[in-house]
Write a structure and sequence with these properties.
Helix content: 25-40%
Structural class: alpha+beta
Radius of gyration: 56 Å
CATH architecture of one domain: 2-Layer Sandwich
Oligomer: single chain
Largest sheet: 3 strands, antiparallel
Strand content: 15-25%
Length: 250
């Protein structure tokens, strides 16, 4: 009997401990490759799902309608339903009237309204008489004259070139309530200064704070003050102007 002995390559170089290390190293590499493969497969799968979901149109809701639900119930019996009778309103027929002739002549008491030609002719006559030196033909354009005793309403326009200037300003008495509370304030007045520079009227435009007594003290003081009158072409005129009192705590 003949015995056959085979020699493996690298025989005698790897023992049991070396084989174990080689096996562990190859198993670690294979495990890492397997994990990477599965992660890549799952990522590709979920990415495909997201792309497919973005292109999918929204669901369409279908509603089924039965037209027979909206129809009236069927007529029972053989007799037809009588139709309602509608009565038309009674409208009176129009009455034709015969127009009456009207005279072309204007009535005797009708006012005479000049037309454009008449106005031009009247203006030309006045201009000719004014240029010819007729003393009766004079045109004087003046502003409305306001009496000294009459105070116009605030907002009445009166032209002036120089505003009134303060000559003697009376300081108002500080209200006791405001003095005890140590409160300051401001009062805006609209005053009328006549041709002599006297304050004839005063209106409170704005007051802060209210109901402390500042407005009454300011009106009482401004009515005793003295101004120079406003001037228009070197002539005194009465005008409305604004003036402000400031109350400060001392």
């Amino acid at each position: 009997m003949t015995a056959l002995a085979l020699r493996l390559p690298n025989e005698g170089h790897l023992g049991g401990f070396g084989i174990r290390q080689l096996l562990q190293r190859h198993m670690s590499v294979g495990l890492i490759i397997s994990v990477l493969f599965h992660v890549t497969a799952l990522g590709t799968y979920y990415l495909a799902l997201q792309l497919a979901a973005g292109d999918t149109p929204p669901p369409v809701r279908l509603v089924s309608i039965n037209v027979f639900d909206f129809l009236p119930p069927p007529i029972s019996g053989k007799e037809p339903i009588p139709l309602e009778k509608f009565k038309l309103p009674q409208v009176a027929l129009p009455i034709a009237s015969v127009p009456k002739p009207v005279s072309d002549d204007p009535p005797a008491d009708a006012p005479v309204i000049p037309n454009q030609n008449d106005l031009n002719r009247m203006l030309q006559q006045k201009s000719d008489s004014l240029l010819s030196g007729d003393p009766d033909a004079q045109y004087v354009f003046k502003e409305p004259v306001i009496a000294d005793e009459q105070v116009p309403e605030p907002g009445t326009f009166v032209s002036f070139q120089q505003a009134p200037q303060v000559v003697n300003l009376v300081q108002p008495q500080y209200p006791e309530i405001a003095k005890k509370a140590a409160v300051g304030g401001r009062v805006v007045l609209q005053i009328y200064v006549d041709k002599r520079g006297d304050v004839k009227d005063a209106r409170v435009v704005q007051v802060w704070p209210e109901n402390v007594g500042f407005e009454d003290a300011a009106k009482e003081a401004i009515m005793k003050s003295k101004f120079t009158p406003a001037l228009q072409q070197h002539e005194p005129v009465g005008v409305w102007v604004a003036y402000t009192y400031n109350f400060k705590v001392r």
